[in-house]
Amino acid sequence: MIKTLALYAWARVRLGHHSCNVAGLLLGLFSEELRVTANRLGVNAESLYIAAAIAALLHDAGKASPGYQERVATRPVFTCHELVAGKLVLDTSIRILEGRIEDKYAQLLAGLAGLAALRHHHGMRSIDFCRREAKKGRVHGLSREDFALLASEFEETCPPSRPIIMILNSLDNDYDPLGSLIALSKHVENLTRIVGFREEGLAFYASQLTGFLSLADYLAASILDGRRKDNEHPRGYAATALKELSWRLMTGIEGKVQLTDLLKGIAMDGIKFMKRLLSRL
């Protein structure tokens, strides 16, 4: 593949590195919870792991748009980039899961993964807000050329994502924000009929996966990406989340293990797990 421009999730933070870290933390921290969820959904755990990995790897895919990238070095603003990501995660998950599991469950897991990507910034802004911003032309979509750039970024920075890279290189249609949101919404509406779940049940499982993804994203951004100089002493939501995860019990009272090193280790274990999963596709 011809080397192209690097893509960034934040100033000086490569998009592929960040996404790979998020996937690693998601699988490294929550594999047991995902296994239990898969059992409740009636699917094999490996399929849910794969859907979760796709959601994590592509949750920031919308940031690849030139409309966002051109300002990332000086004033990074990625208004509602998740609108496109939700549909891309949905489509990618369906293509990978089809034929591996019963079709209705492939549709279910793809829908849950798409919703998680769509709502991973639920604490920052609502879907209604993003819909309004998109109608005003303030949300950027992705073109075929953007997908090729994204594939190149992942190939350089996150080699375990090879199956996703192949799909990105095969996409030949544009994704616009409003159209992507509408398509994902229609898919989710149909799930109650396809799978037979009540809306409350779908909302529960979607919220659960969204929570896992949001937390992995936040920890990767605040601790592993190096956006702050003092990332050994997290503040705000990161501090609360880590307390709930009881990370101090794992590091020891003396604090002999640095927080960054601990999370790097968890992320690396998760990435290795993801590599084994995706290498079998």
Automatic annotation (TrEMBL):
- Which superkingdom is the protein from? Archaea
Q: Name the residues that span the membrane.
A: none
Q: Which UniProt keywords apply?
A: Antiviral defense, Endonuclease, Hydrolase, Metal-binding, Nuclease
* UniProt key word Metal-binding: yes
Q: InterPro entries from the xrefs?
A: CRISPR-assoc_Cas3_HD, CRISPR-assoc_Cas3_HD_sf
The signal peptide annotation in the UniProt record is: none
Some GO term, biological process aspect, for this entry: which one? defense response to virus
Any single Pfam family the record assigns to this protein: Cas3_HD
HD Cas3-type domain location, by residue? 8-219
Name of protein = CRISPR-associated endonuclease Cas3
Question: What species does this protein belong to?
Answer: Pyrodictium delaneyi
